[in-house]
Design goal:
alpha+beta, 2 domains, 8-stranded mixed β-sheet, two-stranded antiparallel sheet, 39% helix, binds zinc ion
Length: 279
């Protein structure tokens, strides 16, 4: 079976679909879609992460049609040399290696798989607090990432547009790894909108549980006391507590969308396998 025949078969089986962007036709994944990263895959990403420079390559995704939609399993990863002049803040894969990776996946002899290109953002800083900030604020696509993500893989007449992946690892202290999927005509090209939604949800839940707790008899007095204490702290130590409170709020996204919930578009992985939904 040629690669073109295989892709058209995936389309027939309902795993791929045709879509348009800026008047061009693309073949893309059909949603709902679930991407599973095995223990082995997350370990490889973790072990190969370089906190000082961008790395990248191809996630080898094995497609399977399930009742719940398109499932992709990633068990192996191909790393491609970064030939960028400034690897600390950009990623450009070696073109020969990229070509070979596309050949090894899409035109594989024993098994054909779909390539999901990924790159990392470095988080290193000599200051551990800045390292947390880097993890929080670099976990989004850059302008360049968004532009590049519109480039498909051409196979004969077919233009295949797969989602791209972004990977970041925080310092040893929190041990979290961010894995997100963007574009491919099925996911947003940035993560901020969804992160804000998740943060709002988390804050609503915290607020609801506090008010439910406060309604229970004596807890009301305690909650009022807690509010008064917080107000006192703010007045007494405003200069120092406000940044701490803001920092805690800023850190909320780090604790949500973990592999234990139902991560959508991106996940915070602490260890082992993870499944990310693209609804
Ligand atoms: Zn980037």
């Amino acid at each position: 079976m040629t690669t073109t025949e295989w892709l058209l078969q995936l389309k027939k089986d309902g795993l791929l679909a045709y879509g348009q962007k800026n008047g061009k036709d693309y073949l893309h994944l059909k949603t709902p879609c679930k991407i599973h990263l095995t223990d082995n895959a997350t370990k490889q990403l973790r072990d190969n992460y370089d906190p000082k420079k961008e790395k990248g390559g191809v996630l080898v995704a094995r497609p399977k049609k399930m009742k719940s939609g398109t499932h992709l399993t990633v068990d192996s990863i191909i790393f491609l040399t970064n030939v960028s002049d400034s690897p600390a803040n950009s990623y450009l894969p070696d073109s020969k290696e990229l070509h070979k990776a596309h050949n090894d996946t899409l035109a594989g002899q024993s098994e054909k798989t779909l390539p999901i290109r990924f790159h990392t953002h470095p988080t290193h800083s000599d200051n551990p607090v800045y390292e947390i900030f880097n993890y929080l604020f670099q976990s989004n696509t850059s302008q360049q990432d968004r532009i590049v993500s519109d480039h498909p893989v051409s196979i004969g007449d077919i233009k295949l547009l797969m989602p791209r992946s972004l990977v970041l690892k925080s310092s040893k202290a929190t041990g979290k790894m961010f894995v997100g999927f963007y574009n491919g005509l099925i996911a947003p090209i940035e993560f901020d909108t969804h992160k804000k939604e998740q943060m709002q949800k988390a804050m609503d839940e915290i607020f609801n549980s506090i008010s439910a707790w406060a309604k229970k008899g004596n807890n009301k007095v305690l909650a009022l006391g807690g509010g008064a204490l917080l107000a006192f702290l703010l007045i007494r130590y405003s200069k120092t507590t406000i940044p701490v409170i803001l920092l805690l709020i800023a850190m909320l996204p780090m604790f949500i969308n973990s592999e234990h919930g139902k991560p959508k578009y991106f996940a915070q992985v602490t260890g082992g396998k993870v499944t990310i939904d693209i609804p």
